[in-house]
Design goal:
The chain has 460 residues and is of the alpha/beta class. The chain folds into three domains: 64 residues, Orthogonal Bundle (Arc Repressor Mutant, subunit A); 113 residues, Aspartate Aminotransferase, domain 1; 223 residues, 3-Layer(aba) Sandwich (Aspartate Aminotransferase, domain 2). It contains 15 helices and 16 strands. The chain has a seven-stranded mixed β-sheet with strand order 4-12-11-10-9-5-6, sandwiched between helices. Strands 13-16-15 form a three-stranded antiparallel β-sheet, with helices on one face. It has a two-stranded antiparallel sheet with strand order 1-2. β9, α10 and β10 form a beta-alpha-beta unit. This is PLP-dependent aminotransferase family protein. In the C-terminal section; belongs to the class-I pyridoxal-phosphate-dependent aminotransferase family.
Length: 460
């Protein structure tokens, strides 16, 4: 029986109206929509509402939880539960500029995160999760790293791995450990901007080596080694960021052979290997003592998982690397590293990555259909490289897209040398909703098809 003084919005629960908690949540939503309940209105305490509706307390708790999930309610501690203010979308930008994994297809990420953290907290010493770790990761973390890298290298000695707070930190530490101010680092003409940022900060010089459709040209690397006496060569060999090129196995062997002859080290930054369809073996398999291999989780699982594994075979070089890393990033956050380890060892990371891989390929098919002849991608990975028609230049196109609410990255952001190709990179993972992505790609396709003379930006 409902109280005669009960608020008008309270539902009369029907025996055949579906789950009772959903009936209550639906009634709350309808009352907010029609103005019967307004932002700031206080709701009855759960026990009181249970009595008014002749329902058990668990039903009311589930109803309030469901209403919170719909952003209808907010708790204010001891003061009670109130109708929430409308959630305002502060930006309408369609972000195609940030290379992040798409939401995993068929995987409940929230549940995976809750379960993973629950297992970490249940099995770990909480004091160890909140203290300093100076050894480049715990023994369990390095074992997880060995398991993560096993598809690429087969069984590894976990002692050869260092756990880092992301690939950028690993790149910076390698530059500090292996080079001196004024030294030269060789890279492809279009390359990951984080390399240039770190090298510039540390006073090193990045020089471009010619590349073709298969990546860095071996003859040009040989020539550059003779001319510049570099200390490092930086390569992103699988689904390269931004060009999507994967260096084929034969060329990987050639580049490794040059590194051996010239006694130059290679930094193999390979975040997308596990997302690629049948990628070649890593360069580090052909020159184990010359190549430092970096594999990060943030590009194939989720950006917040700032954990990277660095394979360094020589123990003295590992010690130098750790000393350099500690000068600016003491350690990977223990809680984050423990979650990564839990996910890898219990199989969650593989399930999550399979979901990301599946969703990424669906999005690539969408991009191929919408962008037609302008699509340049491998069908997997996180991004597409679009070479522009002659009537657009990359900066101009990026500005025009921005005026239409679309963020893209022009080629000059990736330029190692003085020039750059006329292209943009679009990332397929940062827009969560697939249909919003489709709309953004369609809008971009229309923009590419028309000449800039017909584009007129608003003046405000």
């Amino acid at each position: 029986m409902q109280d005669e003084d009960s608020p008008a919005w309270l539902p009369r629960l029907a025996a055949r109206g579906g789950p009772r908690f959903l009936q209550i949540a639906d009634a709350l939503q309808a009352a907010v929509a029609d103005g019967s309940l307004k932002p700031g209105d206080r709701l009855p305490p759960q026990r009181q509402l249970a009595a008014q509706l002749d329902a058990d307390l668990t039903t009311i708790t589930r109803a309030y939880d469901e209403a919170r999930r719909r952003n209808l309610l907010e708790g204010r501690g001891a003061r009670g539960t109130y109708v929430a203010a409308p959630k305002v979308e502060l930006t309408s930008i369609l972000d195609l500029s940030m290379n992040t994994p798409p939401p995993p297809d068929g995987v409940d990420f929230d549940d995976l995160l809750k379960q993973g953290l629950s297992q970490v907290l249940m099995r770990s010493n909480n004091e160890l999760l909140m203290t300093y770790h100076l050894g480049g990761g715990s023994e369990s973390d390095r074992q997880a790293g060995a398991k993560w890298l096993e598809p690429m290298f087969g069984p590894l000695d976990p002692r050869q791995l260092v756990v880092c707070p992301g690939a950028q930190a690993a790149i910076a530490a390698l530059i500090l450990a292996l080079t001196q101010p004024g030294d030269v680092i060789l890279a492809e003409p279009t390359s990951y901007p984080g390399l240039r940022a770190a090298a510039t900060q540390f006073g090193r010089h990045v020089i471009a080596v010619e590349a073709d459709k298969h990546g860095m040209v071996p003859e040009m690397l040989e020539k550059a080694c003779h001319q510049h006496q570099p200390r490092l060569v930086y390569l992103n060999p699988t689904l390269q960021n931004p060009t999507t090129i994967t260096i084929p196995e034969r060329r990987r062997k050639e580049l490794a052979g040059i590194a051996k002859r010239r006694n130059v080290r290679i930094v193999e930054d390979d975040p997308y290997w596990l997302l690629a369809e049948a990628p070649p073996p890593p360069i580090a398999t052909f020159a184990p003592e010359q190549v430092y291999h970096i594999s990060t989780l943030s590009k194939c699982l989720t950006p917040g998982l700032r954990v990277a594994f660095v394979l360094i075979r020589d123990p003295h070089e590992r010690a130098s690397f750790l000393a350099a890393l500690r000068s600016f990033a003491l350690m990977a956050t223990p809680l984050t590293a423990a979650l990564a380890t839990q996910w890898i060892l219990d199989g969650s990371a593989e399930r999550l990555m399979a979901g990301v891989r599946k969703e990424a390929r669906l999005r690539h098919r969408m991009a191929r259909d919408i962008l037609a002849g302008r699509y340049s991608g491998a069908g997997d990975g996180l991004h597409v490289w679009i070479e522009l028609p002659a009537y657009w230049n990359a900066s101009q196109l990026a500005r025009a897209a921005d005026n239409e609410g679309i963020a893209v990255t022009p080629a000059e952001a990736f330029a190692t040398g003085s020039g750059s190709v006329n292209a943009i990179r679009i990332s397929l993972g940062s827009i969560r909703d697939r249909e919003r992505l489709r709309a953004g790609l369609q809008q971009l396709s229309r923009l590419l098809a028309r000449r800039p003379e017909s584009f007129s930006a608003a003046v405000v």
